[in-house]
Amino acid sequence: MTDFPKTLNFNVGVLGHVDSGKTSLARALSSTASTAAFDKNPQSKERGITLDLGFSAFTVPLPEHLRESCGEKQYDSLQFTLVDCPGHASLIRTIIGGAQIIDLMMLVVDVVKGMQTQTAECLLIGQLTCSRMVVILNKTDLLPSDKRQVAIDKMTKRMHKTLENTRFKDCPIIAVAAKPGGPEAPDTDEPQGITELIDLLKAQSFLPHRDPSGSLLMAVDHCFSIRGQGTVITGTILQGSLSVNDNVEIPALKVTRKVKSVQMFRKPVASAMQGDRVGVCVTQFDPKLLERGVVCTPGSLQTLYAAIISVQKIEYYRGALNSRAKFHITVGHETVMARISFFNRVLPANENGDSKPTSQEQSANSFSFDWEFHHLDEHLTSQAEGGKGEPQQWALLEFERPVTCPPLCLVIGSRLDSDIHGNTCRLAFHGKLLEGFEDKNYTETALPRLKISKDKQKEGAVERVTDDYTVIGRNLFKKETNLQLFVGLKVTLSTGEAGSIEGGFGQSGKIKIRIPEGLKEETKQLLSSSSKKKGKGGSKNESPKLEEAKPDAQPVTIHLNFKRYIYDPHKKMVQS
């Protein structure tokens, strides 16, 4: 291995609305085109838009401010790897895939059109995945030269206003013309503002946190075979590191392969680590089987049929988030449909009767099977009066097909089937994957551990009194209900007495209720008057007083409240 100059790799995501000029900008910036670069996809060439994550790079001498922060690690050049993310909607999943490896985001905006739907979506994805951004106002050559500066200033002001409530408040905004005259124009016109942009990128660069430890996870964006050598996989290392002679697993194909050689931008290296963009040659397999996906340390990834995630709604999403609804879930490098069920926590009361989670429990990404939860029909958006933000909530995702992903990864839920051109945000919620279920029969093996309850109420009426301690109730259950399940449950009467269900009475779903403290006098009167009103019994001179006193005797109602755990196979009823 030759000892070539040490290069620090810095990943810059190029995101923006379709046709904002992202690829032209990457091309203008770039000197070394990597294998996947510049709309290599035949479908993309025809449509003139990027379909997959194109990668290209350019190298500059290491900026002074990085020399100090690098310490021992002596780099002498800085390589910007440009990850050109597609801008059109159906491919938002590709963007989310690319966004996990991005150190700095370049949001490309058409200076004439300003913010568009996808620009806003890219901004949201940026907020979830990245801490720094530069906004580029492209296509300034389309502005009439006498009004150019005024228009640029106006759009710069508008962008600052848009960003003021995001994590990118006060981020730098720069105007360029990446391809004067548009994509069809000859390459004679020099791009404008590119040198200034390179200077800005150098100034914005920092020493990214790279950790070689832990298991390998590499995002693959391209795969091809070289005769007599093996199969080459290109991509970016998301976590861990990789060396020649390592064994790696391709989970999608359920096979393990040996690493024969590693290259970084066409130069051979012995190893690579998190954040590096690499080509890895492994022993032969059919490249068509893995165009995109992940490669990892054998056995390190889970393949999940369902998962529990933390949930936060994306504020610009206008739709409702209902339990049992289906969403497109992007997790790891896959997008798959899943059914969602929301739930929140039932907090145990402490000595003072307050219920507050401890600070450890309150962290957004904590979860325990020991906790009690409550089913939600829909995601709660804000807390009761005085609360700040939305209350902590979780969701169970049940995937339509199994997905392979690393633990604790970012999860994004969206409705990618809504109108591409409609002016609405299709990203609905985001969260972290907290628990995964790898067993196909998770509904029987894992879900019963999940204590999510639903409150149930039933109401019926007292039909008659048998003695001071017993009444017969009706309308509480259907004829076919198995009343044995309800024996022993507590009920209350609308007049205040508490009792419990002793069992069924007759065949029509009526029940016998025992009142251990006995019925109150008023209740007995009420019940005798309402039964006498039916015209049964009593001599002519006995009842008129009662009936006059109570012309509208209200029936006495019976209330039964209990909860049931959704995933309890025995469907037990529980009362607090």
Question: Can you walk through the features of this model?
Answer:
The structure is a single chain. Helix content is 17%, strand content 37%. It contains eleven helices and 30 strands. Strands 17, 18, 19, 20, 21, 22, 23, 24, 25, 26, 27, 28, 29 and 30 form a 14-stranded mixed β-sheet that branches. A hairpin with a 4-residue loop joins strand 26 (490-493) and strand 27 (498-505). The protein starts with 6 loop residues before the first strand and ends with a strand. The relative contact order is 0.09. Residues 31-54, 87-91 and 535-551 have low confidence and may be disordered. Residues 7-209 form the Tr-type G domain. Pfam families: eEFSec_4th, euk_SelB_III, GTP_EFTU, GTP_EFTU_D2. Keywords: Cytoplasm, Elongation factor, GTP-binding, Hydrolase, Methylation, Nucleotide-binding, Nucleus, Phosphoprotein, Protein biosynthesis. It catalyses: GTP + H2O = GDP + phosphate + H(+).
**Looking at the structure, what is the overall shape?**
elongated
Mean pLDDT, to the nearest integer, reads 79
Structural class: alpha+beta
Distance between the termini: 70 Å
Q: List unreliable stretches of 5+ residues.
A: 31-54, 87-91, 535-551
Number of strands: 30
Give the count of helical stretches.
11
Subcellular location: Cytoplasm; Nucleus
Cofactor: Mg(2+); Mn(2+)
Keywords: Cytoplasm, Elongation factor, GTP-binding, Hydrolase, Methylation, Nucleotide-binding, Nucleus, Phosphoprotein, Protein biosynthesis
Protein name: Selenocysteine-specific elongation factor
